[in-house]
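In response to reviewer comment 3 from the previous cycle, which asked for concrete evidence that the modeling workflow produces usable outputs, we include below a single protein chain processed end to end. The sequence was submitted unchanged, and the resulting structure tokens are shown without manual editing.
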Amino acid sequence: MQRQTTMANAKTIERKWYLVDATGISLGRLASKVAVILMGKDKPTYTPHVDTGDYVVIINASKVKLTGNHPKTKKYYYNVSGYNGGLRTRSAGVMLEEYPVELVERAVWGMVPKGRLGRQMVKKLFVYADEKHEQEAQKPVLLDLAK
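The workflow returned the following structure tokens.
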């Protein structure tokens, strides 16, 4: 009896919608678990060169937890002008207060593959600073990552 390995392709993928409440969850743990779902590594049909992941909606991004000294010492960099001396920094505490959506998106982006496939995976991520979100029509299933 010979068993055949099935390879996922765009026609055979079934995508689900998940809703994640980020209240009180550590940023790194949230990002790593969401990245696994976006990549599809939690499915038995995972194929490395195909985007087999599901859609994820993260709410309450402003209530995510930063542990240790990260609010003061962790820096996020961005280059405003493209010229020498144009590099600017923001601490993680400032990012959490003023740009919580970008903070969570950057953390998740750091944990998915880089390149064309990774960009395709990140497009399935929707982050909101509060409880209101625009994906109610898709009926996302609540996923409890706090446990």
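The first strand starts at residue 17 and ends at 21. We consider this sufficient to address the reviewer's concern, and the full set will be provided in the supplementary archive.
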